[in-house]
Specification:
The structure holds 2 protein chains of 2 kinds. Chain A is α/β, with parallel strands linked by helices. Chain A has a single domain (about 1-110, about 185-280), classed as P-loop containing nucleotide triphosphate hydrolases (Rossmann fold). Chain A has helices spanning about 1-20, 75-85, 125-135, 140-150, 170-180, 200-215, 225-230, 265-280, and strands at about 35-45, 50-60, 65-70, 90-95, 100, 110, 185-190, 220-225, 235-240, 245-250. Chain A has a 6-stranded mixed beta sheet with strand order 6-7-8-3-9-10, with helices on both faces. In chain A, strands 2-1-4-5 form a 4-stranded antiparallel beta sheet, with helices on both faces. In chain A, α3 (about 125-135) packs parallel to α5 (about 170-180). Chain A is globular. In chain A, about 45% of the residues are buried. Chain B is mainly alpha-helical. Chain B folds into 2 domains: about 1-45; about 45-275, MetI-like (MetI-like fold), CATH 1.10.3720. Helix content of chain B is about 80%, strand content about 0%. Chain B has helices at about 1-20, 25-40, 50-60, 65-95, 100-110, 120-130, 135-155, 160-170, 175-210, 215-225, 230-250, 260-275. The two termini of chain B are about 35 Å apart. Classes of the chains: A alpha/beta, B mainly alpha. The interface of A and B includes residues 85, 107, 109 and 130 of A.
Chain lengths: ~290, ~280
């Protein structure tokens, strides 16, 4: 049942992605997609038998597009991201990133994880430049970019500080800058705001919306916050609990530039309600109604 | 009267200031005083427990000999310690990176810890003679283990997500080692070095006990043979000082890494506090 449904879902959505007028770099997008996930399965072997983490996921992300994956914990959304990044092999299926099949870690990406993973013995600036050092690029050449990006995310005065002197939100901003340092075409983010408190999270979400529009990157963003996903994305991929299926892909046809207030508007809440309903149907969200 | 009470007050102030800054020093002085008085009052024979004053006299009288023997022990200790680092750290890296070393060498190494290495000293003596080499080897054998274990722990305890991040950046194994694993392991390694240097002193002295012609261990045996208890204690004092100086000298290695993660810094602050108290 889901098989046919998915194929039907996927086709029109690819069209939608191509049509998006407000997507940054949409007109420069080459004919190859940024990310192409084609009938991908992932099984983890265990003594009690195989665990199906991702089943038959297909997804095409156009260049410049911002796509979020929402789903309950353990639905395989992080597994999917790891496979796209080439950090984990697929069990079945095929993934292409920027036109090349994924066979090992994909170096053309920027990856941001839930934890900031800054090295405690390096200053913020040196942490950000780790991306450059590891890639054997010229540190001096990228120094202005590092400073400019840090300034852009409000860390201009903290470049020489150490991670333990900064708040969680500030460290996560630095981690995002690190992910952008080498100017990757695609940014993969695995619940990047998941470890932050609610207020910081809202602020990060707003700031990151601006930043991602400026940078014009293709972004694959994993979250369990429906609001966050709708606010940031051009499309929202809804995943079901194990065995990790793509249940529906919801195009978000809101204005390109979004402001805080949009979250109270009927258009916006229609999307969030729609996605919530999908989860309710799957039995992920339950509400007891008393008569 | 008035004056004496104020001078009494200032004495108390000085004492409480000293007590706050150097509690260990004050306790040590108190112990020495009680020792001296106890030996005097209890008529304890000097060959059993010499009073601190006679130990001091012995220290001063034999300073040239003590110093000469101290150099020998010091060299043996440092050579054994250096060897334990030169061999222990690369071995730890092999254990972390190689399955064979991890599965075969490491368990054997851990099992070998139940061998009393001090008991190996006579065997080494037979094999290597009375020179400096068997002492260095005993010092090395005893200091080697904490170096390896702490280095392995430090190198292996890197966060898995950090390694994932490095892989996503396309980091080579060498880059992961030099930029993540090694710096991450440094605090743990230095902790191991501190234990190792203290043990290396023990190893060197034990080596000298068993058969030596020089060194503080040998000099102690000599003094014991002559029933010169103050000199035996003088040797112990010098050995203790050597141990303390070496321990804190190794601790100085931490200074270049003065900016580390918070937990390490707090640990160091606590240690610095107790060091001042010394």
């Amino acid at each position: 049942m889901s098989q046919t449904l998915k194929i039907e879902e996927a086709r029109p959505l690819e069209l939608v992605a191509g049509q998006r007028a407000n997507a940054p770099q949409a007109n420069t997008a080459a004919n190859t997609a940024a990310i192409n996930v084609d009938h991908v399965f992932k099984r983890f072997g265990s003594k009690k038998g195989d665990v199906q983490a991702v089943s038959d996921a297909s997804l095409t992300i156009a260049r410049g597009e911002f796509v979020s994956i929402v789903g309950p914990s353990g639905c395989g959304k992080s597994t999917l991201l790891n496979m796209i990044a080439g950090l984990m092999p697929v069990s079945e299926g095929r993934i292409e990133v920027l036109g090349k099949p994924v066979k090992g870690p994909v170096h053309e990406l920027g990856v941001v994880f839930q934890q900031h993973l800054l090295l405690p013995w390096r200053t913020i600036l040196n942490n950000v430049l780790l991306q450059i050092e590891v890639r054997n690029l010229n540190r001096a050449e990228y120094l202005p970019r590092a400073q400019q990006l840090l300034k852009r995310v409000g860390l201009g005065d903290f470049a020489e500080r150490f991670p333990d002197e900064l708040s969680g939100g500030m460290n996560q901003r630095a981690a995002i800058v690190r992910g952008l340092m080498h100017d990757p075409g695609v940014l993969l983010m695995d619940e990047p705001f998941g470890a932050l408190d609610a207020m910081t999270r809202d602020q990060m979400c707003l700031d990151f919306h601006q930043l991602s529009r400026e940078q014009g990157k293709t972004v694959l963003f994993i979250t369990h916050s429906i609001t966050e996903a709708v606010f940031l994305s051009n499309r929202v991929v809804v995943m079901s609990p194990r065995p990790g299926r793509i249940e529906e892909i919801v195009p978000i046809e809101l204005a390109g530039e979004r402001h805080v207030d949009i979250r109270d508007e009927a258009e916006f809440t229609r999307y969030t309600r729609h996605i919530r309903r999908i989860f309710e149907k799957m039995g992920v969200l339950k509400e007891e109604r008393r008569s | 009267m008035n004056q004496s009470s104020t001078s009494q007050g200032s004495v108390r102030r000085v004492f409480s200031a000293l007590w706050a800054r150097f509690p260990v020093l004050i306790v040590l002085v108190a112990i020495v005083a009680v020792w001296e008085a106890g030996v005097d009052i209890g008529h304890v024979p000097s060959y059993l427990l010499p009073p601190p004053s006679s130990i001091w006299v012995s220290l001063v009288d034999h300073r040239a000999n003590l110093l000469a023997h101290m150099w020998v022990t010091l060299i043996e200790t440092l050579a054994g310690f250096g060897l334990s680092i030169a061999i222990g750290v690369p071995l730890a890296a092999l254990i972390v990176y190689s399955r064979v070393f991890d599965r075969i060498v490491y368990p054997i190494l851990i099992a070998s810890q139940s061998v009393p290495k001090v008991a190996l000293a006579p065997i080494l003596l037979v094999a290597l003679g009375y020179g400096i080499l068997p002492k260095i080897i005993v010092a090395f054998l005893i200091a080697f283990f904490p170096v390896v274990v702490n280095t392995v722990t430090g190198l292996a305890s890197v966060d898995r997500d950090t390694l994932k991040l490095m892989r996503s950046m396309g980091a080579t194994k060498a880059a992961v080692f030099s930029k993540v694993r090694f710096p991450h392991a440094v605090p743990s390694m230095i902790a191991g070095f501190k234990v190792a240097i203290a043990l290396a002193v023990v190893g060197a002295v034990v080596g000298e006990f068993v058969g030596g012609r020089a060194g503080l261990g040998y000099y102690m045996m000599l003094a014991t043979g002559n029933f010169d208890a103050p000199l035996v204690f003088a040797c112990v004092v010098v050995l203790t000082l050597v141990g303390i100086v070496l321990f804190y000298a190794v601790g100085l290695l931490e200074l270049p890494m003065a900016r580390w993660n918070r937990s390490v810094r707090i640990a160091r602050a606590a240690e610095a506090g107790s060091a001042f108290g010394m």
